[in-house]
Structure formats: structure tokens, C-alpha cells
């Protein structure tokens, strides 16, 4: 009986000690354990919860467009161009990932993104608003001829005159500038030219900044990590079947960062967010600016700053984005991926841009609260809870000695419009994130307390079982003596 008791006591002590040790180790390594488990839940695998949310996101995305109406074109270039901001013209954006291809051998997934826009009745601007802006079709023709010889440029000048392009501005309805498009004689002429002369641009009957893009996959083919190998999905590896950006050289040609849906976890104030933006054909970096609390969740806020678009004078690493002569600071030249058109990107109202940009125009009022590009991210989980993507589209112009229309044109950027995409996380998901964050924060404490409780139980069991032992164990070694009866005791009293 005593041997069985000793065996049970040994089992309790060993098992309890092992359990307490395991709980203690779990408390010390809880972060790594949680990160591995959470990462496996985010992986893009067929029929997973994460995949279904990614396939067709249900987070409402509003696509707001602010147009710049040029109010004094008849007095240009004697007067600085003055711009009046009109809008927003609001659309609801819907995204759906299609043509999914799985590559389990290297842990990647390929797809295309269908994007569609539907007019939102809460829009401030009307689609029938009359807008005047720089004639981008004329500006594109002159920009592409800037390195041509005297004869070629004179032919361009003659073509513009014969097609009644006698002004540098154009006026149309807001809807025509955006999704409907408007007709222009130069477009008909461009269709007769080979694609190489058009810079690879498709032959179109109408021009609009978003013409023919609705319900299309203009972002191109994307191949990203699925998260099945390294636990971090959505990191871009290929774009349009290439592992580099063909429009740039050197470091600028490298594909890197997130494709937009997934953000790295365990972010700190020293972290940078790197994201590939297909519309800009390049990566964009964001740096930490502040932390705070929103809807009970902590967040780190990262913004596009002056270094993100800076020119080579202060950021030499950006030189390879210039494709020749660098423009002003705070300006991104995307003409290489826009069929050679003079498209240049800035933050709205030239925020963080070279002061010379504001000196050339009137009506611009940069405001960091209204015009910054930021991601507010739950730092431990890497989940965006508040996002505002903002960019301004501008047309670059410069004087031309041999094209009459642009002989007196100053070298400047004409602001045309800026866009804002805002999205906030669903309240239901916020509740789930609070629970997950609670598990992450309190897991080590729970494991440590559990280890202490088990250790106390083991100690108590050890003490209790010791009390049941015999206090005189040597009595067990005495030989057995038969008790004497009464008669025997009388005969042998001793």
C-alpha cells in the first residue's frame, strides 16, 4: 500500500512540475506562439475565412475626386493660373479578386483585381458641373515631341492648328473628364498612327481620366505570398508576370512591399510601411508619425512624407525614378508608365512639395489634416483600422520654340484633380480584434499564474502525502509475537 502511495505521489509531483514548467515556458514565449498561430489564420488558402474576406472585401470604400477648375485661362500666361477646388465627386468602389491561381510549390497566389465604381448620391459635386482645365491631349502630343527635330515639331504645330487646338485649356462636364470621356479630333488622328508613335497607348475614341476603366482589371496581374510558408501573406513578388518594374532602373526597379491588403505585424516606431501602387507603377514608403487609440484599439499612424517623393537633391536613392532630369521636390514622374503622357503625381495641393510649385499658381491650400496619405495600423496584428489614400494628378508643361501654342508656356505643373480613398474597419471586426489583442496581451500573465497555481498544488500534495507515512517505520521490522493467554501468564509471569 505504501509503495502504491509513493508511486502516485511521484507521478503527481513529476506531472505537475512538467505542467508548471510548460506553462512558464509558454509565458516567456507567448509572443512567438501567438504570432505563429495568428499567421496561420491569415494565410490565403482555399475556403479559409481570411481568403473569403480577401476575395471580395466587404469594407466600404469611398472614392472621392476633387476637380480643379481653372478660372482665368483667357489671361494666361500673363497671370498665374488660379484654381477653384470643386467636389468631391463621390463613387463607391467595389473590388473583387478573380482568375485565382495557386502555387503551393513556392507558397504564392496569382490573381487579378476587378474594380468598379458606382455613383454615390451623397456626392457634393454634380456630374453636370462645367470644368475648365489644361488640355491634356494637346499637352501629351507636345510632350512626346519635345525631343524631336525641327521638322517634326513644326508638323505637330501645324496639326494642332488645323485641328482647331488654338487654346491650352479645354472645357467639359465633370462626368466627361472622369468616366464618360469626351471626343477630340486628335484622338481620331492618333488611331491612324502605329502604337510605337502613340507611346503604346491604346487607340481610343474618347478621353477621360477613368474612361474604359470601370469594371476592368487595369491593375494587372499580381503574384503575392500566400502566407503558408512565412506567415505573411500579400507581399508582392510579380507584377504583370515580371519580377521587377520595367519602367525604372537599379533599386527603383525592385518590386517590394505589400500589395495593399496585408500589412506586416509587430510594427514599431522605427518601422516603415512599403506598398506597391499599380496606378503609380512604383513602391511608396510611409514612415511613423504618431500613435493613439481608436475604438478601443491602439494604432500606429504611418504617412507619406516629403522624403517619399523627394528628388535627388535631398534623397539620392530616388534619382532612378526621375528618368532623366529630376523634377521639383515632392513630385513623382509617372510618365514612363502612362504611355509617355506628361503625368506627374504629388500629394493634394502640393503638400510637402517644393515651394516653387505654389509660387506658380494660386488657389492651392495644403493642409496635412486634409491632404496627407496615411495608414493607421494596429501594430501587433498588422491590421489597418483607418486608411486614407490621397494623390494629386498634374500635367507637366514647358515652353517649345517650334510649337506655336507653347512658345510662351512657362515650365510648371498644372493641377488637374486629386483623389481620396478612405476606408474604416467594420465595427464587428473591431470587436474580434479586441478579443484577439486581449489574448495576446493577457496570455503571458495567464500562463504565469497557471504555472504558479500548479506549483502550489504540487507543493501541497507533497506535504499532505508525507503526513500519511508511518512515524516509526522500524516497527515494521520486529518479529511477530503471539500474545500470551491467561494461564500461560500465571505460569510464566515474566
UniProtKB/TrEMBL annotation:
Localization of this protein: Cell membrane
Pfam families in the cross-refs: CD36
Coiled-coil ranges per UniProt: none
Residues spanning the membrane: 442-464
GO cellular component term, pick one: cytoplasm
Recorded GO MF terms: scavenger receptor activity
Keywords associated with the record: Cell membrane, Glycoprotein, Membrane, Transmembrane, Transmembrane helix
Tree of life domain: Eukaryota
Family per similarity comment: Belongs to the CD36 family.
Name by which UniProt lists this protein: Cameo2
Amino acid at each position: 500500500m505504501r509503495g502504491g502511495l509513493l508511486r502516485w505521489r511521484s507521478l503527481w509531483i513529476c506531472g505537475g512540475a512538467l505542467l508548471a514548467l510548460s506553462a512558464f515556458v509558454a509565458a516567456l514565449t507567448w509572443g512567438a506562439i501567438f504570432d505563429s498561430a495568428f499567421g496561420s489564420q491569415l494565410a490565403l488558402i482555399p475556403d479559409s475565412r481570411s481568403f473569403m474576406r480577401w476575395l471580395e472585401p466587404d469594407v466600404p470604400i469611398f472614392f472621392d475626386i476633387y476637380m480643379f477648375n481653372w478660372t482665368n485661362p483667357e489671361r494666361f500666361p500673363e497671370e498665374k493660373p488660379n484654381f477653384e477646388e470643386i467636389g468631391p465627386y463621390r463613387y463607391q468602389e467595389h473590388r473583387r479578386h478573380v482568375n485565382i491561381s495557386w502555387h503551393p510549390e513556392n507558397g504564392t497566389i496569382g490573381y487579378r483585381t476587378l474594380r468598379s465604381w458606382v455613383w454615390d448620391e451623397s456626392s457634393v459635386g454634380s456630374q453636370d458641373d462645367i470644368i475648365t482645365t489644361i488640355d491634356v491631349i494637346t499637352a501629351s502630343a507636345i510632350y512626346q515631341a519635345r525631343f524631336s527635330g525641327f521638322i517634326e515639331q513644326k508638323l505637330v504645330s501645324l496639326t494642332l492648328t488645323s485641328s482647331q487646338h488654338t487654346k491650352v485649356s479645354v472645357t467639359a462636364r465633370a462626368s466627361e473628364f472622369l468616366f464618360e470621356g469626351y471626343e477630340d479630333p486628335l484622338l481620331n488622328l492618333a488611331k491612324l498612327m502605329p502604337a510605337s508613335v502613340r507611346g503604346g497607348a491604346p487607340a481610343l475614341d474618347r478621353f477621360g481620366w477613368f474612361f474604359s476603366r470601370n469594371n476592368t482589371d487595369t491593375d494587372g496581374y499580381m503574384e503575392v505570398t500566400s502566407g503558408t510558408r512565412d506567415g505573411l501573406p500579400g507581399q508582392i513578388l510579380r507584377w504583370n508576370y515580371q519580377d521587377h518594374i520595367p519602367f525604372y532602373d537599379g533599386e527603383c526597379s525592385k518590386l517590394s512591399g505589400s500589395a495593399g491588403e496585408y500589412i506586416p505585424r509587430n510594427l514599431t516606431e522605427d518601422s516603415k510601411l512599403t506598398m506597391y501602387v499599380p496606378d503609380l507603377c512604383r513602391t511608396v514608403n510611409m514612415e511613423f508619425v504618431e500613435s493613439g487609440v481608436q475604438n478601443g484599439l491602439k494604432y500606429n499612424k504611418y504617412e507619406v512624407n516629403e522624403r517619399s517623393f523627394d528628388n535627388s537633391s535631398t534623397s539620392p536613392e530616388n534619382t532612378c525614378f526621375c528618368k532623366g532630369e529630376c523634377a521639383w521636390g515632392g513630385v513623382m514622374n509617372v510618365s514612363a508608365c502612362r504611355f509617355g503622357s506628361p503625368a506627374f503625381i504629388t500629394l493634394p495641393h502640393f503638400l510637402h512639395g517644393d515651394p516653387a510649385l505654389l509660387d506658380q499658381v494660386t488657389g492651392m491650400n495644403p493642409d496635412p489634416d486634409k491632404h496627407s496619405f496615411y495608414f493607421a495600423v494596429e501594430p501587433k496584428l498588422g491590421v489597418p483600422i483607418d486608411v486614407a489614400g490621397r494623390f494629386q494628378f498634374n500635367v507637366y508643361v514647358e515652353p517649345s520654340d517650334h510649337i506655336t501654342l507653347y512658345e510662351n508656356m512657362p515650365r510648371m505643373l498644372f493641377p488637374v484633380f486629386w483623389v481620396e480613398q478612405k476606408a474604416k474597419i467594420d465595427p464587428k471586426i473591431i470587436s474580434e480584434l479586441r478579443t484577439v489583442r486581449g489574448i495576446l496581451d493577457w496570455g503571458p500573465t495567464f500562463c504565469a499564474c497557471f504555472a504558479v497555481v500548479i506549483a502550489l498544488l504540487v507543493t501541497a500534495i507533497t506535504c499532505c502525502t508525507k503526513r500519511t507515512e508511518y512515524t516509526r517505520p522500524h516497527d515494521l521490522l520486529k518479529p511477530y509475537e503471539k500474545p500470551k493467554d491467561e494461564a500461560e501468564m500465571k505460569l510464566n509471569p515474566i
